[in-house]
Design a protein that fits this description.
The chain is mainly β and about 190 residues long. It is about 5% helix and about 30% strand. The protein is built from two helices and twelve strands, in the order βαβββββββββββα. The strands form three sheets. A four-stranded antiparallel sheet has the order 10-1-11-12, with no helix packed on it. It has a four-stranded mixed sheet with strand order 3-2-5-7, with no helix packed on it. About 5% of the residues have low confidence.
Length: about 190
Amino acid sequence: MVTVTSPERDAFYAALGEWEPARRELTIRRCRLDPPVVSATQGDVLVLANDDDYPFLPRMGEASFMQVLMKGEPREIPLERAGVQAVQCAFAAPCGRADVIVGYHPLHTLTEADGAFALEGVPRDVPIVVHAWHPLFQEATAEVRFGEDGAAEVELALTPRELPEPAEAEGGEGEGEEETPEGPPEDQPGVLF
């Protein structure tokens, strides 16, 4: 996933202006969730559909209630929290896994297979930091200045994360899910989720 932030948070959000929520589609096809990664904005709607004849029981995150998803009966899920949530099928029939990555603003995209990407509507009058993120790699960033034509090229290289030591991976007492704030933290202008 590629997104942008700015050290001048207020000016950045003011330059973005208002945006309309989007509908992001995630479909079960041939017993697999397609696409495997969905890039969305807080306030968007995830449309979960089943193209197979077999009924599936998908869940998103820590759902306490699950409902069968039949062919031709899509379900709409409001994306109210920023962060990364997994979608996968429970119980009898597996449907693989998809990750839904929800950001605070609409300037995000997924790269093509070759790593190429394009972002439109990035403000020109504020400093911009481009972020490339993948759950298995270290985040890569680059500061960008736009030319007169409103375009800029950036190259980002991701490096694999180091695996934690076994004692660190088990976790300690008092660890659990953190509450996701309703908006980007004021004191962290570079926050992605």
